[in-house]
Hints:
By secondary structure, this protein is an alpha/beta fold. It contains 18 helices and 17 strands. The site of adenosine-5'-diphosphate has 18 residues, from helix 1, strand 12, strand 13 and helix 14.
Amino acid sequence: YEKLDVRPLRQRLLVVANRLPVSAVRRGEDSWSLEISAGGLVTALLGVKEFEAKWIGWAGVNVPDEAGQKALTEALAEKRCIPVFLDEEIVHQYYNGYCNNILWPLFHYLGLPQEDRLATTRSFQSQFAAYKKANQMFADVVNQHYEEGDVVWCHDYHLMYLPKCLKEYNNNMKVGWFLHTPFPSSEIHRTLPSRSDLLRSVLAADLVGFHTYDYARHFVSACTRILGLEGTPEGVEDQGRLTRVAAFPIGIDSDRFISALELPKVQEHIKELKERFAGRKVMLGVDRLDMIKGIPQKILAFEKFLEENPVWRDKVVLLQIAVPTRTDVPEYQKLTSQVHEIVGRINGRFGTLTAVPIHHLDRSLDFPALCALYAVTDVALVTSLRDGMNLVSYEFVACQDSKKGVLILSEFAGAAQSLGAGAILVNPWNITEVADSIRQALTMSPEEREKRHRHNFVHVTTHTAQEWAETFVSELDDTVIEAQLRTKQ
Length: 489
Ligand code: ADP
Ligand code: G6P
């Protein structure tokens, strides 16, 4: 057995995710520019270095013409990326519809948008058909690029149907699937009309991974309760075939953030920010503008804090940086207007001629600006209503080794399990509790801050993205070897 366990040093990895790490913007008929995509999946996977990886996914753009597709394929090849071309109708039904209007809210316990409920129920079948079709398109591209011995690592809720499609092509493919969101309680999952199809196709993978033990447990319960299969300590068994199910908490490339703080560009930003906000404590929120992030709840809690603590009104500022996301989905459009409305009202109420309490930006920041902001922050506010992990909290901690700021963290983020001992944990639905925690954070003694920060910093710098990927891939190898040994016996 020992002898079998010999792996190439740099294993070939095919990473398959709906979103490529770069999104394409068309500049001319056959000229493209590529921008880094936002989101935790991309951040974590970009931190994985020690594999010979190729990334297969959608470049976030519709390219109907062959010449455009050829030019984009060439531009992406330089980044070791392989595009899957999805037309507008598929994007509408699969990405905006099934993925982001059905699975995403359901997996985050938000249910379906109320007024959309009936319409969504009616369009469910066609959206699920588009979902399966899109997953098959991803499988076709994987199959074209697959070489024997490759590890195929599928990611996230967009691609739950992919493991099944891949195994239909080649049952010997090593297939892993990892979910970057929570997996909800089986009572939630069972409301999904396609509940069994999705579970069965995920189970076609050799190894299924989640951020936390709870999500893995929910998945196993869904398989036992909905499919009537057997759950074991290793995973789920179906007629003698085992699918391994386990927790693999993700991390970040902490060195990238820590070393960036020394860069002249970052130092310049730090200096500017310190001058700009001299005499005020800086509170920070960095999120995709998504309803799971609890942005309105965070801002209302800040309002409550200002209301109850008048002495702080001209001594603190909240910087909320919210990058727009999934802007074709109506629910996201509504959220943008709602956030603007609340921010405007609070700034009108507590602002002066020279200062406002909330600076809200609807955009992405580049890496040096983001690192500088993390570094000058006194209190970071992560108030997700649910969140698979939340890497923003990890990035903040990585950039705080000199300042030792405080992290206020939702107990419903996966990160609460790893950073809970160092952060102040809150229920984001309880704005009074969050307002109190803001006061506690702003008045915390330096010794207490140091102690809490140290706990989190050690975690963030030792549980990295690289370690996460190595553990997952090595577990996948072991799982496949064990399965081969079992069938030989
Ligand atoms: P999610 O995966 O739901 O987007 P995470 O917190 O895990 O949440 O990851 C978000 C990633 O996107 C982080 O790496 C963060 O730095 C990046 N990000 C989010 N908002 C912004 C923004 N406004 N500007 C720049 N980067 C952002
Ligand atoms: C979350 C999801 C990712 C997704 C990211 C950005 O992190 O888990 O799969 O890529 O959000 O969302 P988007 O829809 O823009 O890809």
